[in-house]
Design a protein that fits this description.
The protein is an alpha/beta fold. Helix content is 53%, strand content 13%.
């Protein structure tokens, strides 16, 4: 039996579509050829190309035969080709076969196991303050309806990526999603032992994200195709079965303004989990969960646990008053607490806290840069004026902020919204009278380090 000449048939169909892009028979032939060659994603993308061509040229939808073929390919079934026929194009027989060689359960487990290579390692130590956000976000991700996009927002170092990593590991054993992918937009990170380090990752735009997802989710990703065709392949894949996609560390306005519309196109039934320093509350279709700093009791437990694990006996055995002193200066930012714990191994605690208050030492200076510099640069004059005034009001109401900032109510409102968007201010109180406050580390930063930044403007 002569092997079907797929290359010739593929070229014939493509040439026909160049002349007559509305020819459904040529679209169907390409879909069959691609599926038979094992490239189901590209076959599904060809259906999307067919839809676009028919809509643009004739204003119609694909006919029933084309839709039926699409459904067969999506389900893993294609028509088996016979021996070559006229023009080397091959004849179609009515025998059906399944592309999948493993059970559905095995396929899902094998594919999802690959995502572990793209994740940060799951912390092997106890995590603090994580149960409530984990439970709420798992509820959102397990739901089979909207919201299709969810976001974890918060200030730098607060634990957004750690929580997202934990959520993915929690979801891995379930059959809720056919597959998962993780793409990071993080350009730099702060490591307590070394300071700020570049990640070496490229900036995340639509094409970079598309390529990264195709590489993770398809056995034979069409990376050399034009961007519209790659997007069509990705869309078909994510529309065919529910996937969970994590987009970690969207840090800039340009990031989310460019990517959010694209993620909306890809979502449903697939879901996206985004981590970001910039709250996405202004998007009505995105579920937002804001991470806040650990409370004092959790900070005490966190410090004792970490110190014991590192064998820093002096800190593990610290009194409640000493631990409360750390909390008063550092607050509940896990990244900053880890830096303090590490330095307390070889410096007096009072010296460590004084260094933090006065921004003394390279690592402490870099910590502030990592957490706050980008947000500071994104504030206008009114935003900076309100930000600098906030330590004068502890858990203040709106009119108190107006008074201490010297701004009028409209300016205060706009500045406050910007500070909240940048995760610099936490909101509490009730519906009738919200209250606004800073993280304790932010207060420490404002009273010392920011003065140098102002002088540099």
């Amino acid at each position: 039996m002569r092997k079907p000449d797929y290359a010739t048939a593929h070229g014939y169909a493509q040439r026909q579509l160049q002349l007559e892009p509305w020819q459904e028979s040529a679209h169907r032939q390409l879909m069959e050829i691609l599926a038979l060659q094992g490239d189901r994603g590209a076959a599904l993308a060809q259906f999307a190309a067919c839809q676009r061509a028919l809509a643009a040229e004739l204003g119609v939808e694909p006919d029933a035969e084309t839709v039926a073929l699409y459904e067969q390919i999506r389900a893993g079934e294609v028509l088996r080709k016979g021996e070559g026929g006229k023009g080397g194009r091959g004849e179609v027989r009515n025998t059906m076969y399944d592309l999948r060689t493993e059970s559905v359960e095995q396929t899902i487990v094998n594919r999802k196991s690959e995502i572990v290579n793209h994740l940060d390692p799951l912390p092997d130590q106890r995590l603090f303050g994580i149960e409530a956000p984990k439970a709420r976000l798992l509820e959102v991700l397990h739901a089979v309806d909207r919201p299709w996009l969810a976001a974890i927002d918060g200030i730098g170092g607060i634990g957004k990526t750690t929580l997202a990593t934990l959520l993915v590991h929690e979801m891995l054993p379930s059959d809720r999603f056919a597959n998962m992918a993780w793409v990071s937009a993080k350009q730099e990170e702060f490591r307590p032992a070394v300071g700020i380090a570049e990640t070496g990752r490229p900036a995340l735009d639509v094409e970079t994200l598309t390529n990264a997802l195709l590489e993770q989710l398809m056995a034979r990703p069409p990376l050399t195709a034009a961007l519209p065709e790659k997007q069509a392949a990705l869309t078909s894949l994510l529309k065919a079965q529910p996937h969970l996609i994590v987009v970690d560390n969207l840090e800039t306005v340009a990031d989310y303004q460019a990517l959010i519309p694209f993620l909306r196109q890809l979502a449903n039934p697939s879901k996206f989990l985004i981590t970001t320093r910039l709250t996405l509350q202004s998007y009505s279709d995105i579920f937002c969960y804001s991470l806040t700093e650990l409370p004092a009791a959790e900070v005490h437990a966190f410090i004792r646990y970490e110190a014991a694990g590192r064998n820093i006996e002096r800190l593990a055995g610290a009194t409640d008053a000493q631990l409360q002193n750390i909390y008063e200066v550092v607050g509940g930012n896990p990244l900053a607490l880890k830096l303090v714990i590490g330095q307390a191994a070889f410096l007096p605690l009072g010296q460590v806290l004084e260094n933090l208050q006065l921004a003394q030492g390279k690592k402490i200076d870099q910590l502030y840069v990592y957490i706050y510099w980008q947000a500071w640069e994104m504030l206008d004059d009114a935003g900076r004026q309100l930000f600098l005034a906030m330590p004068a009001v502890d858990d203040g109401a709106f009119m108190e902020l107006v008074m201490v900032s010297g701004l009028d109510p409209d300016e205060t409102q706009e500045a406050l919204v910007r500070l909240i968007d940048l995760s610099l201010v936490q909101t509490g109180g009730d519906l009738d009278e919200p209250r606004y406050r800073l993280h304790r580390l932010t207060e420490t930063f404002l009273m010392h380090e920011v003065l140098k930044w102002q002088q540099g403007d």
